[in-house]
Amino acid sequence: METLFCHETDRGYRVVAQQGGKRLFQAILELKETSAGPRPGRFLLKDGSSEKPRSPDEFIELARGANRIRISQQTSPEGRAELKEMLSGYQLDVTAVRTCRLCANKGEYSPISSETAINTGEEYICPDCATEELERELSFRGNLTGSAQDRLEDLLLEVQDLQRITNLLKGRLDPDLTKFDEISANVEDVELQQVDSLNLHPGVQNLLESRFDTLLPVQSLAVQNGLLDGDDQLVVSATATGKTLVGEMTGLDRVLNGQGKMLFLVPLVALANQKHEDFKDEYGDLANVTIRVGASRVRDDGNRFDPNADIIVGTYEGIDHALRTGRDLGDIGTVVIDEVHTLQEQERGHRLDGLISRLKYYCEERAKRKQNYGGAQWVYLSATVGNPRDLAQALEANLVEFEERPVALERHVTFASGQEKPNIENKLVKREFDRESSKGYRGQTIIFTNSRRRCHEISRKLEYNAAPYHAGLDYGRRKKVERMFAEQELSAVVTTAALAAGVDFPASQVIFDSLAMGIEWLTVQEFHQMLGRAGRPDYHDRGKVYVLVEPDGSYHNSMEMSEDEVAFKLLKGEMEDVRTLYDESAAIEETLANVTVGGKAAKRLNNRMIGDVPTKHAIGKLLEYEFIDGFSPTHLGRVITSHFLAPDEAFRIVDGIRKDKHPFDIVADLELFGEDE
């Protein structure tokens, strides 16, 4: 027998015999006082729930056969003295050791040291018992998935303090524990391009020279890879590295040199509005700027779309609608597609894919008709692409990839219920706004959540001045929020994940109140796009990201995973490849649009798209549905494609009209379609 372990109880001493880390038996030993000192008085061998009396002398024989005898330090000083006196009477050595009381109560010998002991606030216990206590606490907070529980157990063993770990589940902000990792700032060695060497149109050249002497690294790489020679480019670089100017620089140069107008296309109306205002402020003295969003000819502020303008800022759908309805966009010299990773989105990816194909066709056909028009240069921009080389090849563009992170980025994870999250967000926002960077800017926060209602709910609960920001606000109110944030009058904006990309809020901190966009979990790419908003080199010393995780939380019964499971998938996940996938509905919609724009060239337009479109099947369905007649859209087909309707939506509308339903009822049917599923 290796070890005989003694631990004081209210009945005497529990005795545990171990061999090779396994318990041989346990017993209860009661001592009696004799003239020779304390001696074994009663020895009860435990067998399950029963106790079998054995001769007290048997204990002495067992003790003599043990390699070592240990007494728990948790035994009282009087008890330790009594045991030592008894054993020394038989010339047996004994050592007091630090052990886990919980293990001892279970009849197990578990020595602990400063390297293994876990502090509970009241005592020190072994790692196994501490893990059991943590699991018990987790069961009250919700059923965490394996990744989240592993994270907490790893932290427990690292800090050896159970109370600090359980405090995380109560919304306590302990930066040493919440910190998941840090993405270091890194600087690539790029030969910077001197602005005075660019040989641009004097209007652009003078404008750039008045602002800076050299281009930023990603801009320099773009020039070195043929930007000003008219080469198409895919520019992949982190937020705030200056990639937007790549498209603006060549686009404005071509405008002023009479090579055609610039289209600057973004996925959202809010982004188009902001970019339109920026362009008017920066380039309004050199060129006419207009905006095209959706099917409307009128913006929220009353300005009309001018198709003859030098610079058209638009949403993807705004320009696509112009193509689908046969609008003349004039000579296009440059097309800048911002947030090109939208190509992989399930709902909108196929529409961007189709738009690119149709717009290229428009430019090529115009070049055939006009000898003095040489077509368009294409510049695609993104901060997050998992397969940049493949995408550049598919887009037939030179790849300009710049992996520099201007400032370090800390990523933190903590746990809280939906009700607790606003309180934590309030603490984080206050703490950040109370700090000032070495550049003289106070820390400001973007909070991403999954609904407009939640935006207002959170912003009302923040003590420092904050504002909601989402697509449901009118144009003037959004502009006011942008201005107040830029002037540091707001500590935070609370926005939906749908506005994650592009909107220029120079925040030092990003908080994820939710990891969902509507009722869908974020993808790794969307997550990186959003967290990339934290930290700007001209404003902040570092960026911070806080992911607030609700154990076992979800936002719709259709969601298969819980928020804690999603959190660690996103934090550890690799960027998804940008690929456009087509189901039957998407294939029919894009093929109909291509027939509308290109007629018999529709097959060619389909073939040049990024995704694999089943063209033959789609055309067959279009003929069957009477959306086309040969390679021309029917009247019904034109209405469907001009309103971006999927086939099932079109059929529900037609069915409602035939049944003489009120338009409101038809709209309600469309909104509710698919809810039961």
TrEMBL record:
Q: Which residues form the signal peptide?
A: none
Query: Can you give the residue ranges of the Helicase ATP-binding domain?
Result: 224-403
At the top level, the lineage of the source is Archaea
> What SUPFAM superfamilies does the record tag this protein with?
P-loop containing nucleoside triphosphate hydrolases
The family database entries (PROSITE patterns) matched by this protein are listed as:
HELICASE_ATP_BIND_1, HELICASE_CTER
Keywords attached to this entry: ATP-binding, Helicase, Hydrolase, Nucleotide-binding
Q: Tell me any Pfam family this protein matches.
A: Helicase_C
Instruction: State whether keyword Nucleotide-binding applies.
Output: yes
Positions of the Helicase C-terminal domain: 423-579
Answer yes or no on keyword Transport: no
| GO molecular function terms attached to this record | ATP binding; catalytic activity, acting on DNA; helicase activity; hydrolase activity; nucleic acid binding
Instruction: Spell out the InterPro entries in the cross-references.
Output: DEAD/DEAH_box_helicase_dom (IPR011545), Hel308_SKI2-like (IPR050474), Helicase_ATP-bd (IPR014001), Helicase_C-like (IPR001650), P-loop_NTPase (IPR027417)
Question: What protein am I looking at?
Answer: DEAD/DEAH box helicase
